[in-house]
Amino acid sequence: MNVSLQSAIRMLVMVLVLSPALPAQQPDTGPPQSALPPLLEQVGIDQKLDQSVPLDLAFRDEAGRSVTLGQYFGKRPVLFSLVYYTCPMLCSQVLSGTTSALSVLKLEPGRDFEIVSVSINPHETPADAARKKEEVIARYHRSGAAAGWHFLTGEQPSIDALAKAVGFRYAYDPKTGQYAHASAIMVLTPEGRIAQYRFGIEYSPKDLRLGLVEASENKIGNLVDQVLLYCYHFDPTAGRYTAVAMNILRLAGAATVLILGTFIFVMLRRDAAHSRMGAGG
Hints:
By secondary structure, the protein is α+β, with helices and mostly antiparallel strands. Helix 2 (90-104) links the parallel strand 4 and strand 5 (114-119). The protein is built from 8 helices and 13 strands. The radius of gyration is 31 Å and the shape is elongated. The strands form 5 sheets. It has a 5-stranded mixed beta sheet with strand order 6-5-4-10-11, sandwiched between helices.
């Protein structure tokens, strides 16, 4: 075998050894399947901003009293959440994240705003709600928290109507005996319109305060809040307040004019005072 033929054979062997193996041809099984289990495909939150919730829905509070949702509306904005009280993990984190954010604020529940949590589990009782309320209030050290935070339970038709109104889609898993659901809290106006959604289990105290102030139509909060609301706009896609550049420039321009006007006024007053002193001498 000549040298050139040997070299060619060696080259062919090296190519076969070093080249990656070709994947075996897979049978055509049709379109790709969804990565989510069928149960989770039913879960999510559809934002229904500016839509009204049905205030005539009947529930029971943590003391077992028959109430309607409208009892917690009319005067103050409402921080609202759909959870269930025997949830082993996610709901507790939603409630814990809520208390952590609210604990930073100077706004008082029951005075400046109301908090309403409603169970999506129709088998839970006022006793379940009372136990969860006691646990949450123990972490939220505010004098008005017990009177301003309401834990409700209800029948399936009321729960379904409320969940549909706010776009909260959830599903029951009979294998685990638990509910699959997303995590969010909502800010509602005193009239019961959905103003904002806050997703996840941690919430920015600043954004939460601005959301409550804005939902109240500036009936709560202070001058600083009004300035911030002028300079920032709530982005429902991002779920947070973002700066409005034009408004910031306008505010900066107005502040500059005010400062210059004040300076000119002071200088004119001083010159006038010097002139009077010179004339008197």
